[in-house]
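Assess this one:
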Amino acid sequence: MTLSLTFVIAGLAIIALVAAREHARVVAARRTLLDRCAPLLSEAEIKHGGDGFPTLEGRHDGKFLRAELVPDTMTIRRLPQLWLKLTRIEVRPHLPEFSFLVRPNGTEFYSLTSAHPVVLEPPADITADVIAKGSHHASRQTLASSAPVLRRIFSDSRMKEVAVTDRGLRLIWQADEGTRGEHLLFRQCRFEDATVDPTIFAALLSTFDDLSSSLDAIDEAEAA
């Protein structure tokens, strides 16, 4: 019995060691996900949370920008998601806000859409299941001004949300989907194919410029 107990303890120790090494490998891989995007920003700085996912901060077009990777495990009938959350600060104190969320499932803890009280009619020709909301009824004009840009943005099936606020702009984009095996068997959140290509990151930055330009006329009219 003593020998059997020794083998059990040794086996558990080996399993724990292998698990610890695998966890360290996964965390190390996460830490580099935004490294290639950093040169696209000025004054770039990367920080890491306890889960290893990076946050990139810097300046784009003279404005402060933050890029975060947000794991989403609040799923029932789908796999975990890894979202790239991009926020660019540009203050427009008189701008009526709006947010635009596609394929809503009610668990989007990272979304700004639920904070807006007024339901808006989404632009035509965006066929995805969508919720458009605003800070007040004047947000309809802001949304209409941005409609051509929104159509281009949501032609990318990996785009999840666009938000326009009086403090800045927000994009949520799908960086990866969790692997099925680990999720089904162990309910683990593993993103084996996660990557943020610098070309895609540059395109998302350009989207900020297009969206900002579409708001200039509205911003000037509200301030007048």
